[in-house]
Structures are given as C-alpha cells and as structure tokens.
Fold:
Amino acid sequence: MNKVGGKSVLIVTDVQNDFCPGGSLPVPRGDEVVPVINGLMGRFEVVVASQDWHPIGHISFASTHSGRQPFDTIQLMGEEQILWPDHCVPGTAGAEFHRDLDIKPIVLIVRKGWHKGVDSYSTFFENDRRTPTGLDSYLKGLGILKVYLTGLAQDFCVYYSAKDALHLGFETCVIEDATRGLDQPPGSLEKKMRELAALGLYLIRSDDLLT
Structure:
C-alpha cells in the first residue's frame, strides 16, 4: 500500500473509552471512528495519538466546583470554561484507548490536560495558550509539513488541534468520516468547520486517501 507523501502525520485524537458510548462523556457514535482510523494507519509513516489525562480534582470537572453541574460554565483565565463530568482520569478504564483501536502503529502518545489547574483541548497547546505539549517541536523535528486529524470530538479537541496546526504553519486536513462531534448547540459543528475552512483547512474523507 502506498504511503501518503509530503512529510505527513496522522493524528488520532482522544479515542478513549470515556468519549465512546458507555463512557462518562460520550460522543454520539464515537466508536464508529475506530475501524476508519485503523484502516488509515497503514498509509502513514508517522502516527501520533493523544489522550486526555486529567487528575482527580481537575479544574474542568463539575465535581471540583461546589454547587455546579456538568455542562455549566464558569470564567477561567478570562475565558468561558465548560464544566465536564469527571473523565479520562489516569488509572481508570475511561482513560484507556478504545479496545479495538490498533495502537501498534502509534509512535508517540501525547497526554494533555494533566496540569490540574488548566484544561486542554488541542494536541498542541494547553488552554492557557502558553503551555505547549511538545507536539509541534516533535513534528517539525521530523520534517512534517502536513497533518491529518481524526478522532474525538470533532468540534472540541479536533477543532482546536486543527486551528493550532494551521496557525503553526502545517497544511491541515480533517478526515470527516474518521471524526464525530457533539454538535451542541445544533449547527455549532458546521460553523466551526466553516471557520477553519476559511483559515485554509481541507475537509476530506478517508476514501480520498485509500483510493
């Protein structure tokens, strides 16, 4: 099978049990991305995966804030912060990759959100926008020019990862059938993808790479 050229990387974003059906913060039909991603991995020399990795008492957990419920919002560092159910706590089954995800081709795992007082969506930066995960330097050290993003959720961690990748100078693609989103409120996912397309994002499908 021919490899995708152009110094490319496949980024598998947060395909963890807590974000799949049955998890504490499920993305609808999130498990459907797994066979698509598995089918794509063989086309890439470099495959990177990320995991949300939140300690107990993380600032983004509603349980950390007295009287707050999941999906309430607060102000944090001058920005609106959604409060989530506890999720992706190290040592729990919810933090592990989906059991059917093929992890053998993955050459690097980026764990994000492990700073207790800072949330993290992007695979490139924590939400303070100052703390890098190290992924940018790693990819540029390999001479990577183009990133293909997959995983969960399309309108949060994939969206912010794509936005950062574009700002960092990577040619950036989101493989739509290898992602799923929350789309709350309805229409917000499409709006975010239009925003990224205006910045230069390519929206493609897995067939574009497999045929």
Observations:
- The beta strands are 8-13, 46-52, 73-76, 79-82, 106-112, 146-152, 171-180, 202-204.
- The first helix runs from residue 33 to 41.
- The chain has a mean pLDDT of 95.
